[in-house]
Write a structure and sequence with these properties.
- Strand 2, helix 1 and strand 3 form a beta-alpha-beta unit.
- It contains four helices and 19 strands.
- Helix content is 15%, strand content 40%.
- The strands form two sheets. It has a 17-stranded mixed sheet that branches. It has a two-stranded antiparallel sheet with strand order 9-10.
- The protein has two domains: 145 residues, Diaminopimelate Epimerase, Chain A, domain 1 (Roll); 133 residues, Diaminopimelate Epimerase, Chain A, domain 1, CATH 3.10.310.10.
- By secondary structure, it is of the alpha+beta class.
Length: 295
């Protein structure tokens, strides 16, 4: 059962235990959240790997560390700075499901209806959108080959690479790199076979998240994503954003609001007139605890 655990009530103090954490998930994409605003938290890559390991640690798709807002990083005052670490210890720029979860914690903590989160991928505005529902302004889609980035200059609407049934993707970035492949029957695609080789294709110097999308109708997409560093995810918020953007770029739909169906559930994606992508979806709090003291 989901619990509503106030973020500010998490305090260290159990003998033999490490930092307090909150475990959350957005459509089963799960996160370990540590507050480092009052006491900085800087785990090594090896520690992050162990913490995210589902047998040796708490287990999670990412470790999220909250830090004080960065001064002078933007014109808009941010509530906090969010650092996002993949389970291989690598820091990444963005995660849509993580942004919703952190938005919910900050909205609960502050009592506000809107908060701004600073991330390496840019400023994200989060708003309440219902019971355990958060809307996040994910920023603008980037389509330039340098922005994705690609290893060479080319038309990002047709990258011309492929593996098996996945051919000729759209390249995009919304804080992290994506390649979106459109398919006729998503259920017939084994993304665990083709995702790893496409993720590490030489065209992507920073690797890429690999999405397979099926257009159900003009307002609905079905999506599956193979994520960096190498896992088939139950839901990918940034992947949902770029899939809708890619469908528009390919001329497959003109709808500005679309439902994106993923293995664990759905999110709503809106393309605003100013180019900003808004993602709305659910968040859940799992439990709270203390990280083990690592040797």
């Amino acid at each position: 059962m989901s619990q509503n655990i106030p973020f500010t009530e998490m305090e260290a103090g159990i003998v033999g235990c490490g930092r307090p954490f909150i475990k959350m998930h957005g459509l089963r994409n799960d996160f370990i959240v540590v507050d480092g605003r009052r006491q900085p938290y800087k785990p090594t890559s090896e520690e992050i790997v162990r913490i995210c390991d589902r047998r040796e640690g708490v287990g999670g798709d990412e470790l999220l560390i909250v830090a004080p807002p960065r001064h002078g990083s933007a014109d808009t005052e941010a509530y906090a700075f969010l650092r996002i670490f993949n389970p291989d210890g690598r820091e990444v720029e963005a995660c849509g499901n993580a942004s919703r979860c952190m938005g919910w914690l900050f909205l609960q903590e502050s009592g506000r209806e809107e908060v701004v989160i600073d991330t390496l991928g840019g400023l994200l505005t989060c708003r309440r959108a219902g019971e355990h529902q958060v809307a996040v302004d994910m920023g603008k889609l980037r389509t330039g080959w340098q922005d994705i980035p690609l290893a060479q200059e080319m038309d990002t609407l047709h990258l011309g690479i492929g593996a098996g049934p996945l051919q000729d993707p759209v390249g995009m970035n919304i804080g992290n790199p994506h390649a979106v492949f459109f398919v006729a029957d998503l259920d017939a695609v084994d993304l665990t076979t083709y995702g790893p080789q496409l993720q590490k294709h030489p065209l992507f110097p920073e690797e890429a998240n690999i999405g397979a999308a099926q257009l159900i109708n003009s307002k609905t997409l079905k999506l599956s994503v193979w994520e960096r560093p190498g896992a088939l995810t139950t839901a990918c918020g940034t992947g949902a954003c770029v899939a809708v953007g890619a469908a528009h770029r390919r001329g497959l739909t003109e709808a500005k609001r679309m439902t994106v169906i993923m293995p664990a559930g759905s999110v709503e994606i809106e393309l605003k007139e100013d180019g900003v992508v808004v993602m709305t979806g659910p968040v859940e709090t799992c439990y709270a605890g203390y990280l083990p003291v690592l040797d």
